[in-house]
Design brief:
- This protein has 435 residues and is of the alpha/beta class.
- The protein has helices at residues 13-29, 43-54, 60-67, 69-84, 116-123, 150-160, 194-202, 210-218, 272-282, 311-324, 352-362, 386-396, 411-416, 424-434; strands at residues 2-5, 34-37, 89-92, 99-101, 110-113, 127-131, 134-136, 142-144, 166-170, 191-193, 223-227, 235-238, 251-255, 258-267, 287-292, 299-307, 330-333, 336-342, 369-373, 376-382.
- The strands form five sheets. It has an eight-stranded mixed β-sheet with strand order 3-6-2-1-9-11-12-10, sandwiched between helices. The chain has a four-stranded antiparallel β-sheet with strand order 13-18-20-19, with helices on both faces.
- A hairpin with a 6-residue loop joins strand 15 and strand 16 (299-307).
Length: 435
């Protein structure tokens, strides 16, 4: 069994003691128990702030070495608390567990985990208290997995150890139809399909890091999201099957973590997009929504969104590319948000996007950019209107009342409504296309 406790669950000394109680109880039921911890709430931000005080653009390797300490503190503290209760426990860092990653500092991806050290501790009867969020590259450098990365550590460990399940303990009861901190009408879901959770996570529902859902789906590892502060069974994230009621829209997600970059008047000819995005791809920067305007006198404008954290580097790389292309101005808009609706029922339903646009229109929300996938529609809007937009969409698709059932399929839509086999290759191809 793998359990993960997030930042707020280990946010204070008292809370770590509470987690120790939960773990002690779980150990009776699950003799082979691995517990993954995040840094204490606010600690990662505090450490990033310290790095920022040392240099305007802190060295990435040393920044990872610094922020990785947050998880080491909470892992050791929890192990101390467990031992004090007579529960045999040992803390282990990413390098101690041989969590191998690539060398992309601050956004590394796990390549492999050597389970032998963990197995030895489990065989000795110890609870393994693992640091989330960190690993080691081929050169032995400490790396971190991106914000929220402890979720991914937990699922990766669960997969490597062939665990029965991975439980993610957090500060809300489970996965809701919208962020419960923004939308008071949001309802907790009992179950959600991997695919829907992945789209919600990618659309900003950061209750789970997107990569953790992708890993869970590829390894068919059931994940339960639940609260550290309640006995509620939480939300099961699992493979799509007939037990999951088909709804047109499962949830509304929003994301305030992106900025919009617009490059004006670049030539409209083959190779321009390639030049524009080559540098960003090399730097490992993820592009999300991209819009290219109709061209006029052989010149065109391109807009796209990237994570705020990548803003400075993106601006630099894009200015360089724009110069190379003899393009015009580069503009950066920091006050955008993305709002998305997600649901597998969309495959079999026509008119869902139109209904979303109508709801936003009636709420007086202007749409700046639109993008869709098979089971998601995303609109870029002004940051100031995000709360209004989420509430309007939540009401429109009746999510407060269990959601609109996906029944009335159109003849054309019926053709694609059969669940398709989900293979690793398909997921990779689909995600690759989107980025
Ligand atoms: P942890 O520190 O435990 O990893 P996070 O802050 O990363 O916790 O994730 C939990 C938070 O995710 C919740 O407090 C909530 O505000 C936010 N959240 C956003 N969207 C959703 C959603 N659809 N369902 C539940 N929580 C959500
Ligand atoms: N501590 C890291 C963060 O704040 C990882 C995590 O909490 O999952 O992003
Ligand atoms: Mg988190």
């Amino acid at each position: 069994m793998v359990q993960k406790f997030g930042g707020s669950s280990v946010g204070t000394v008292e809370r770590i003691k509470h987690v120790a109680e939960l773990v002690a109880k779980a150990k009776v039921q699950h003799p082979h128990l691995v517990v993954v911890v995040s840094a204490m709430r606010g600690e990662t931000d505090r450490l990033l702030g310290l790095a920022g005080q040392m240099a305007p653009r802190p060295d990435p390797r040393e920044t990872d070495a610094l922020v990785a300490t947050g998880e080491q503190v909470s892992a050791a503290m929890l192990a101390i608390a467990l031992r004090d209760r007579g529960v045999p426990a040992v803390s282990m860092s990413g390098p101690q567990m041989l969590v191998r990653t690539d060398g992309m500092f601050s956004r590394a991806r796990i390549k492999s985990i050597d389970r032998s050290a963990i197995d030895r501790a489990l065989m000795r009867g110890q609870v393994v208290v693992a640091t989330g969020f960190q690993g080691m590259d081929d050169e032995g450098n400490l790396t971190t997995l991106g914000r929220g990365g402890s979720d991914t550590s937990a699922v990766a460990l669960a997969a490597a150890l062939h665990a029965a399940r991975c439980d993610i303990y957090t500060d809300v009861l489970g996965v809701y139809t919208a962020d419960p901190n923004l939308c008071p009408d949001a309802k907790k879901l009992d179950v959600i399909a991997f695919e829907e959770m992945m789209e919600m996570a990618s659309a900003g529902s950061k209750v789970l890091q997107i990569r953790s859902v992708e890993l869970a789906m590829n390894h068919n590892m059931p994940v339960r999201v639940r609260s550290t502060f309640s006995d509620d069974p939480g939300t099961l994230v699992t493979a799509d099957d007939e037990h999951i009621e088909r709804l047109v829209v499962r949830g509304v997600s929003h994301d305030n973590g992106d900025i919009k970059v617009t490059v004006r008047r670049i030539p409209d000819r083959p190779g321009v997009a390639a030049t524009l995005f080559r540098g960003l791809s090399k730097a490992g920067i993820n592009i999300d929504v991209i819009v290219q305007n109709a061209s006029e006198d052989g010149k065109t404008d391109v807009s796209f969104t990237v994570a705020k954290a990548d803003a400075a580097q993106t601006e630099e790389l894009v200015r360089e590319a724009a110069r190379e292309l003899q393009g015009g101005n580069v503009e950066v808009d920091h006050s955008i948000s993305k709002v998305s609706i997600v649901g597998v029922g969309m495959r079999a339903h026509a008119g869902v996007a139109a209904e979303m646009f109508q709801a936003l229109h009636e709420a007086g929300v202007n749409i700046a950019m639109i993008t869709t996938s098979e089971i998601k529609v995303t609109c870029v809007i002004a940051r100031a209107q995000v709360e209004k937009a989420v509430k309007a969409l939540h009401a429109r698709f009746e999510l407060h009342a269990g959601g609109k059932k996906a029944t009335s399929t159109t003849p054309a839509a019926k053709k694609v409504s059969k669940p398709k086999p989900k293979t690793k290759a398909k997921v990779a191809a689909r995600r690759g296309k989107k980025r």
